Every structure is written in C-alpha cells, then in structure tokens.
Amino acid sequence: MSSVLIIGSGIIGLATAIELSLRGASVTILERGACGQGATWAAAGMLAPEAEQLEGALRELGIRSRSLYPEWIRKLIHITNRDCSYRCCGILTPTLSPQPHLPEYIDRTQLNKKQQGLCDAISGALWYPEDGQVDNRCLAETLIVAARTLGVNILEGTNVYQIAASGDRVTHLETSLGNMHADRYLLATGAWTRELMPLPISPRKGQMLSVFDRDRSLQRVIFGSNVYLVPRQDGTIIIGATVEDVGFTAGNTAVGIAQLLNNAISIYPAIADMNIQSTWWGFRPFAPNEMPILGASIYENLGLATGHYRNGILLAPITARILADWAEGNITDRLTSSSTKSF
Ligand code: FAD
Ligand code: GLY
Questions:
Q1: What is the dihedral of CA 109, 110, 116, 121, to 10 degrees?
Q2: Closest atom of ligand 1 to CA, residue 35
Q3: Considering Cα of 204, then 10, then 341, then 302, what sign does the dihedral take?
C-alpha cells in the first residue's frame, strides 16, 4: 500500500496508523502536542454501547466495535507484550423503581450479589454483561509502543496549519516542519477538526475526578443517569463526567466537581470517605446525531475519522478497520446509517 500522513495522535489516529501499517502502508502521524493526550487521555474507558443507550446505526457500530475488542487487544499484547487492563466486566445501571418488564433488569437481591453498598433507594439495576472497560491511558501508551514497533513515524510537536488542495485532491499539508506530502491523508483531529476542515464538529467539555478505594469495595462499573463510577484494578475510581457546551474553556470548576461528587456519593455512599486523587477535563468531539464522521471527504485522497463524541474509546477498532478499508480503496463513501452493516 501507499504512504499515509495522519493528522492527530489520539486513539483514533493511533489505532488507524497501526491497522494501516499492518496492511503494508508507510505511515506518519503528525501531532502538535504529545501523543495520546487529547480526549483519549481524559476518558473513562467504558466500552458501553448498551449502558450508554446508543441507538440505531451508532448502536450497531458500537456493538460491532465492542465485539472486535478482545481480538484487537490480543493483537496489541502480541505486538507490544504490554497489558492495558481490558475487561469485559459488565456494567450496572441502577434504577429507582422496579423495571421487571426489561430483560436486563435484576432486582435488589440479585444486584447485591454483584455489588454491595449502593444506596438504599435503588430498587434494582439493568445489567449489561457484555459492556466493559479498558484503562484508556494505558491503552494509549500501548498503541504508541505498537505503532513505533511497526515502524510508524510519530512526529510530536508538529502542528498542521492547513490542508492544501488542488481540484479534488490534497496536494500537501502545511506544517510547522514545512510542507509534507503523501499518497493519502487522514484527518483524526478530534474536537479541533474545524481548524482544518469545515465539518460540523464542536467540543463538549467533560470534567472528571478520581478517588482512591483502599478496600477495593467497588467492583463493578456503575452507570447512573447523571454520574458514572469506573473502578480500576489498582483501587482508583474514575468519577465522570460533566457534558458542557463551553467551547475550549479549560479547567475544573467548583460546581462541576461538586456535582460529580454529590451524585457519586448519593449512588455509592462509601465514596464520601475516600481520598480525592486528581481532577481533570477533556474535550469530546461532538458531531450531529452523535454519529462519527468516517470515510471519504470532498478530496479523493483525504479520509475522515472524527466526531466520536462520547464513544471514541469504544469505536477505535471499528474506525481503524473502516479507514484502512478506505485507504485500500474498498470504501468510496462516507459512512452512513444504512452502510454500517458491511463492516
Ligand atoms: P483526541 O484524543 O482528542 O486526539 C486528537 C489529537 O489531534 C490531539 O492529540 C490533538 O493535539 C491533535 N490535533 C488536533 N489538531 C491538530 C493539528 N492541527 N495538528 C496536529 N495535531 C492536531 N469514550 C468512550 O468510548 N468511553 C468512555 O468512557 C469515554 N469517556 C469520556 C470521558 C470524557 C471526560 C471525555 C472528554 C471523553 C470520553 N470519551 C469516552 C470519548 C473519547 O475520549 C473520544 O471520543 C476519543 O478520545 C476521541 O479520540 P480522537 O483520537 O478523535 O481525539
Ligand atoms: N462516555 C462517557 C463520557 O463521554 O463521559
């Protein structure tokens, strides 16, 4: 295959670089900051098409991608000899009133067998055994190692200022290292996509924090209506997340963190006595209908992989496959709701 320049080294750029490289392409990633530090670093790492209640084509894509995860992780471990705490651990969505008509519903007695200590007002839960989690920061590091092992050239601190085109083809990228050329180009710039292309992507800020669960009392991912709790194996519990339409305003706010903590304590009271570890924020790449923009662009040699909003960690393996198919010329359209079945 040909040479590919990828703009952006989040999970989407990295995953696609690896897939392209495995299929024989010569790949370079251009990243203006440090690798894997955008939304990919900020995420919770839930693999949750069911708990997130995804609908239609997005749900189909999410479930397909979730099913690719075990093999994808095996492949990454084989290349890197590194683990990234992927677990098909199931996710619980607590309910205040009984929902016995729903097939996923378990009552409080069954819920207590999966997780004790949830607040008394909870009557039961919806149980999604196939949803799971991965440590997204660890995964990003593994992807970087895998990419380098496979010969992907990663140029950190390299800003892409403009995509230069003539007619229906991209001719080169104008970058802080000068003009760069390749046979094909891939836009994987997450929430910052509009700086380079007039696509309908905008940032949605998410604030997060973590606490330390010394007793490892929380064993399950809890996905509530206004907060989620993601326990890592080392005792860290990730608590997320706000969804704010405030542009690229940086920082954690007192009210953002207060809301998360109040909601977390009201669902799992033991959190009240746990030490706070850290707080952070990130910018989700929001796209209309929450559907990522994948595949062809107005330029025949520029592929798009952006707009993964709340589900980019989940959707990384399927995105890599779709964009590698596009680069091989097997997909000539942009992904639409009616075309997801073929992937
Ligand atoms: P990013 O990771 O943001 O990477 C884009 C990269 O492009 C950045 O490194 C940036 O520096 C680079 N870039 C941009 N413009 C340029 C340029 N001009 N030149 C060079 N480089 C450039 N998803 C899930 O599946 N599960 C979750 O549990 C989950 N939780 C989340 C919680 C929060 C708080 C947030 C914020 C997101 C969460 N997500 C989750 C969503 C997920 O993190 C994103 O959808 C995903 O990380 C997007 O990946 P990306 O590679 O497209 O973008
Ligand atoms: N998927 C979780 C989040 O975006 O907050």
A1: -60
A2: 9
A3: positive
Number of neighbouring beta carbons within 10 Å of residue 36: 22
Whose alpha carbon is nearest atom 2 of ligand 2? 310
Cα separation, 198 vs 36, in Å, equals 24
Mutate to test the pocket of ligand 1, among 5, 9, 28, 201 (most ligand atoms within 8 A of CB): 9
Ligand 1 center–CA 138 separation, angstroms: 15
Estimate the share of the chain in helix, then strand, then coil, as percent rounded to the nearest 5.
Answer: 35, 30, 40
Structure tokens at 34: 């440090």
Mark 200-234 as b/e (b = at least 16 C-beta within 10 Å): ebbbbbbbbbbbebeeebbebbbbbeebbbbbbee
Edge-to-edge strand list for the sheet holding 26-30: 153-155, 26-30, 3-7, 184-187, 302-306, 293-296
pLDDT band at 84 (very low <50, low <70, confident <90, very high): confident
pLDDT tens digits for range 192-228: 999 999 999 999 999 999 999 999 999 999 999 999 9
Contacts of 126 (CB under 8 A, 6+ apart): 51, 92, 93, 95, 99, 102, 104, 105, 106
The pTM for the full model equals 0.97
Q: Is the CB of 282 under 6 A from ligand 2?
A: no
What number of other Cβ atoms are within 10 A of residue 313's Cβ? 26
Concatenating the DSSP letter of every residue in 21-48 gives HHTT-EEEEE-SSSTT-SHHHH---EE-
Q: What count of Cα atoms within 13 Å lies in the side-chain half-sphere of residue 57? A: 15
Q: Can you give 285-301 as a three-state secondary structure string? A: EECHHHCCEEEECCCCC
